């Protein structure tokens, strides 16, 4: 690999945080949905990283995009992983993960707009 | 959708530009490569526009009675495996000289104008066919090499490397609402860039003594400033 991460790599990391490696709790469709939302959030916070695709932010499909290079600079991929994991936990209606989810979403924003946070 | 598997493949951009990009991305925390590339393009364009440092002699075969000629810079050599040149090597900004190709003194003749860059208009219809030469100043074109890096002659990048780097750092640090916004650092680097740009302009004017007259009048000499007591 030439140093770029694929969407599949990112999803694997997200599942690691969620401790759902097999996808029993969160199916791929849900993970990709949150990942795609994270891409849109990244575009809102850092439009400078999406020159040329500002109105056409890449959205990924679990059926076909596992091997696609993710359209995000490597230094910000961890932030996207945290956002996606946080968003998935925020979807839970049980409420016990709300604090953790909120912390992750805040961390994502901080990482995106302050660089070193 | 695949993203650049290799960020900066040879032969374009130059090794200097690649080195600068690596330096700047290491200094400016959180900067996106696309942003740095766009700002470098702006710096190079501004620098070339101000200094006329990037020049090219273009042959213009003039014909009896014809006063208007469309001229353009030569294309860059093709990137293998392509065999046909397609990349523009800068675009014309202004006309600097126009002379007969047989004149060793390269004296300006014909009073041509170039209100629209690339459209050369002679003041009077030629009375004989001749091979003339137009010396033009160029600026980088919008990147078209698929890597979004501006293309400029290697020697310019190497000679004015520090100027470009200071300009790039200045522009990045002065980007409002970005994590790397830093007014003081931006002003510092921009000041250094402006100084280097002014000295480069003098370098170009004294091209036959390159580096020997790299000075400029201090700002207190500027005629447009109000004088004390006036």
Description:
- The complex is a heterodimer of chains A (117) and B (230).
- Chain A has helices at residues 7-18, 28-45, 77-91, 98-114.
- By secondary structure, chain A is an all-alpha fold.
- In chain A, helix 1 crosses helix 3 (77-91), helix 2 (28-45) crosses helix 3 (77-91) and helix 3 packs antiparallel against helix 4.
- Chain A is globular, with a radius of gyration of 14 Å.
- With 230 residues, chain B is of the alpha+beta class.
- Chain B has five helices and five strands.
- Chain B has helices at 15-27, 33-51, 154-159, 161-173, 183-205; strands spanning 55-62, 68-70, 91-100, 119-121, 130-139.
- Chain B has a three-stranded antiparallel beta sheet.
- Residues 1-10 of chain B have low confidence and may be disordered.
- The A-B interface holds A 2, 4, 46, 48-52, 58, 68-71, 73, 75, 113-116 and B 1-6, 29-30, 32-35, 38, 148, 175, 178-180.
Supply the number of helical segments of chain B.
5
Strand content of chain A: under 5%
So how many helices of chain A?
Answer: 4
The SS-based structural class of chain B is alpha+beta
- Residue-averaged pLDDT of chain A: 88
Largest sheet of chain A: none
Instruction: Summarize the amount of helix of chain A as a percent range.
Output: 40-55%
From the alpha carbons, calculate the radius of gyration of chain A and give it in angstroms.
14 Å
Largest interface: A-B, 19 and 18 residues
Element-level helix/strand string of chain A:
HHHH
Q: Quaternary arrangement of the chains shown?
A: heterodimer
Shape annotation of chain A:
globular
Strand order of the largest sheet of chain B: 1-5-3
* SSE-based structural type of chain A: mainly alpha
Tell me the radius of gyration of chain B: 21 Å
Biggest beta-sheet profile of chain B: 3 strands, antiparallel
Give the structure's gist in a few sentences:
Chain A is mainly alpha-helical. Chain A is built from 4 helices and no strands.
């Amino acid at each position: 690999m030439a140093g770029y991460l694929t969407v599949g790599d990112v999803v694997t990391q997200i599942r690691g945080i969620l401790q759902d490696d097999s996808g029993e709790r969160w199916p791929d469709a849900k993970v990709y949905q949150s990942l795609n939302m994270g891409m849109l959030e990244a575009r809102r916070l850092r439009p400078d990283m999406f020159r040329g695709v500002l109105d056409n932010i890449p959205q990924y499909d679990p059926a076909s995009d596992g091997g696609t290079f993710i359209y995000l600079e490597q230094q910000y991929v961890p932030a996207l992983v945290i956002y996606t994991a946080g968003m998935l936990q925020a979807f839970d209606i049980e409420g016990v993960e709300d604090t953790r989810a909120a912390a992750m979403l805040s961390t994502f924003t901080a990482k995106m707009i302050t660089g070193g946070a | 959708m695949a993203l650049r598997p290799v960020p900066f493949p040879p032969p374009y951009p130059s090794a200097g530009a690649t080195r600068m990009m690596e330096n700047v991305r290491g200094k400016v925390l959180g900067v996106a490569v696309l942003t740095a590339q766009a700002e470098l393009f702006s710096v190079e364009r501004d620098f070339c526009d101000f200094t006329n440092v990037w020049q090219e002699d273009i042959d213009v075969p003039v014909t009896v009675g014809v006063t208007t000629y469309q001229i353009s810079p030569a294309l860059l050599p093709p990137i293998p495996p392509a065999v046909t040149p397609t990349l523009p090597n800068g675009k014309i900004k202004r006309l600097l000289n126009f002379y007969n190709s047989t004149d060793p003194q390269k004296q300006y003749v014909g009073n041509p104008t170039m209100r629209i860059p690339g459209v050369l208009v002679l003041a009077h219809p030629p009375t004989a066919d001749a091979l003339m030469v137009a010396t033009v100043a160029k600026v980088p074109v919008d990147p078209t090499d698929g890597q979004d890096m501006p293309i400029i002659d290697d020697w310019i990048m190497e000679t004015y490397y520090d100027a470009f780097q200071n300009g790039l750092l200045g522009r990045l640090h002065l980007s409002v609402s970005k994590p790397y916004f830093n007014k003081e650092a931006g002003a510092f680097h921009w000041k250094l860039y402006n100084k280097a740009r002014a000295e480069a302009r003098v370098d170009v004017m004294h091209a036959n003594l390159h580096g020997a007259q790299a000075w400029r009048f201090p700002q207190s000499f500027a005629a447009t400033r109000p004088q004390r007591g006036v």
